[in-house]
User: Which sequence fits this backbone?
């Protein structure tokens, strides 16, 4: 075969491949457009951006530059913040020894005596110390984030933010063998068995559980310096004092659990408390003052300054309806994560959207899970952003945001699943 014929055949094969890919892309776009054109979606707001992770090419964009209420998709940005700012093991305590007194301050680490994370690193270390003074003023936070719903004070997903959170800042109450079981047990006397749907008084730590309640109740408690002191003293078995000052000098840091274990729990369970505390802990890497606002401003001014649309970002969890992000911004953030975090680590932390994971009912149990994505829902809104591992072996990055619908969420999920499965099978 002469050189001219070989060159011609190579060009012809490239043309065939290009035509095939172009036809495939058009087919995918037509299919996606058809799904988003369902009559049931015509009165609501929907956005979808899809990018090829390898080439960086945007293969679909519908309302990608429009702002949406992200709900718990905000946790993706909190995750990225933690990746950029937090070390392999989370800073759990900072301290200085001055005149035979150990002065300590919290870092926002949420794992202290947490019902799932169960970390006792700081507790065990403090048991070995003598005179301890606790400083709690190293923050500028309100107990709740801006735009949080006031009526959520008694719901499990709305614990208060603190520098030294203990037990996840919630009580667990249940009937065990006919008796009452409460954790932390120091609050047992504050729990009444009563026939009521109320779980806690709004402005005091008075809790209620019905005699017929079969589940374990998880209810936020009102935090205070005095309660933190009391719970901490009980945990370490010795008295501590509250200090109004922290000595000058270089602070030492005690490290706790692996940060990835907190990231994973936050994303898999969509845990608002862990998200808020992780953002506080991240801010502690920037200054001595724990501040959600400082962490957000730093990220927007540095690692997120190149986003095509700058978000309005006010909290770590997405509880606030003040948050506004675009689908395009989420794809850009997810692209950063993919480029900066080893794939094995990333897909070990991101939730899998499929059977036995974040979706209770998988539409097609014969199809292997192909979505690694974080959902975000709040009344009349449902969003999903993450990665698609396609049948052909490619990786797509996507953000599918749905706001202001009045139809059942199940119909929105059906549209999303059909659309994303089409991308999985055909791209």
Assistant:
């Amino acid at each position: 075969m002469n050189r001219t014929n070989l060159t011609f055949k190579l060009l012809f094969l490239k043309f065939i491949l290009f035509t095939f890919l172009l036809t495939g892309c058009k087919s995918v776009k037509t299919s996606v457009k058809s799904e988003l054109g369902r009559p049931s979606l015509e009165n609501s707001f929907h956005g979808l951006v899809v990018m090829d992770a390898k080439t960086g090419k945007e293969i679909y964009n519908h309302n990608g530059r429009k702002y949406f209420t992200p709900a718990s998709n905000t946790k993706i940005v909190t995750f990225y913040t933690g990746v950029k700012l937090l070390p392999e093991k989370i800073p759990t305590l900072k301290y200085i020894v001055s005149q035979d007194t150990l002065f300590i301050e919290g870092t926002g680490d949420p794992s202290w005596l947490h019902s799932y994370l169960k970390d006792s690193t700081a507790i065990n270390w403090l048991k070995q110390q003598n005179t301890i003074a606790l400083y709690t003023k190293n923050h500028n936070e309100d107990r709740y984030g801006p735009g949080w719903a006031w009526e959520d004070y008694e719901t499990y997903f709305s614990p208060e933010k603190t520098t030294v959170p203990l037990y996840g800042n919630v009580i667990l109450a249940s009937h065990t063998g006919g008796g009452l079981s409460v954790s932390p047990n120091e609050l047992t006397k504050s729990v009444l068995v009563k026939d009521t749907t109320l779980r806690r008084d709004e402005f005091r730590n008075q809790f209620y559980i019905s005699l017929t309640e079969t589940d374990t109740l998880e209810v936020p408690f009102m935090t205070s310096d005095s309660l933190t002191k009391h719970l901490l003293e009980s945990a370490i078995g010795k008295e501590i004092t509250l200090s109004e000052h922290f000595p000058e000098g270089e602070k030492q840091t005690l490290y706790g659990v692996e940060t990835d274990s907190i990231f994973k729990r936050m994303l898999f369970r969509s845990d608002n408390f862990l998200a808020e505390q992780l953002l506080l802990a991240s801010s502690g890497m920037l200054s001595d003052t724990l501040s959600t606002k400082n962490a957000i401003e730093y990220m927007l001014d540095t690692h997120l300054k190149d986003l095509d649309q700058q978000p309005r970002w006010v909290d770590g969890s997405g509880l606030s309806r003040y948050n506004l992000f675009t689908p395009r911004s989420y794809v850009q953030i997810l692209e950063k994560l993919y480029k900066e975090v080893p794939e094995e680590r990333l897909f070990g932390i991101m939730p899998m959207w499929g059977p036995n994971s974040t979706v209770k009912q998988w539409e097609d149990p014969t199809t292997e899970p192909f979505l690694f994505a974080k959902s975000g829902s709040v009344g009349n809104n449902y969003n999903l952003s993450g990665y698609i591992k396609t049948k052909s072996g490619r990786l797509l990055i996507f953000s599918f945001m749905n706001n202001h619908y009045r139809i059942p969420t199940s119909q929105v999920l059906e549209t999303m699943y059909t659309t994303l499965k089409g991308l999985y099978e055909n791209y």
Q: What stands out?
A: The longest strand covers residues 89-98. The chain is about 30% helix and 20% strand. The domain at 31-80+288-426 is CATH 3.40.710.10 (Beta-lactamase). The two ends are 35 Å apart (CA to CA).
